[in-house]
Amino acid sequence: MTTTIKNELAQPYPLTAAQIAFFRENGYIKLRHVLSPDTIRYMDETITREVHRLNTQHLPMDQRDTYGKAFLQIMNIWVYSLPAREIVFSESLARIAAELLEVSGVRLYHDQALYKEPGGGQTPWHADQYYWPLATDRTVTVWIPLQETPLPMGPLEFSAGSNHLSTGRDLKIGDESQEVLHRALRDEGYTHVVEPFSLGDVSYHNGWLYHRAGANHTDQMRKVMTMIYMDKDMVLKAPENPNQVNDWNTWCPGAKVGEVIQTARNPILFEKE
């Protein structure tokens, strides 16, 4: 990593009060030109190299279920690669998360690369926090496309304000969540927002915000890196489903129910002085 890129990943991105208020109301925000083309290119080279090395999904597309068709998913890359760690630990991106959540600091929950192959299917409607044994909604994911992402490539689609909807919070991602949430979000009148991402644009969305992505109708891989942040004072709750038990053991090993999650796998990435 060059000094220029390292400095960029550390310097503050100026959020406005209006942007913070927009996130508070809608549960998501798309930010323009957060990262330079050079930094995106470096992230692409670094993360893509690790995705190819760590990927274990080799089934043909027609033999996968809906979830398997949606993307290649590689998690906690920072554990396996120092260059990836420098990206995941970006103070700039973590500071944005803390300011949007309106908390004094954030920890890493985990990272994940989401690569939607050419011909890859839709990502069904879902809320990420169904999987997380976390006591509050002070969670946010940054979604970083590693290329320009036009509509045919399958950028994220947000259901604005749907993080306040309790319907469907017991559904894991899949065909059922797509059917139930499509109907519920339509009936409740939530506005859906989907836009192309230019190079360097990123988005942040709350853990309970319902979102989806379309299929990749291009001949190019849709490459995305994400980091999930939580309030630095986040407490582990008693798991409510088997997926939360798995997440506890995988992403927060050693954490105790009712106590702040402060394991070696969950370092503080930004804290206000």
TrEMBL record:
InterPro entries attached to this UniProt entry:
Phytyl_CoA_dOase-like (IPR008775)
Q: Which cofactor names does the annotation list? A: Fe(2+)
SUPFAM superfamilies linked to this entry: Clavaminate synthase-like
GO molecular function terms listed in the Swiss-Prot or TrEMBL record: 2-oxoglutarate-dependent dioxygenase activity; iron ion binding
A Pfam family it matches: PhyH
Q: Which Gene3D superfamilies match?
A: q2cbj1_9rhob like domain
The protein's name is SnoK
- Species of origin: Puia dinghuensis
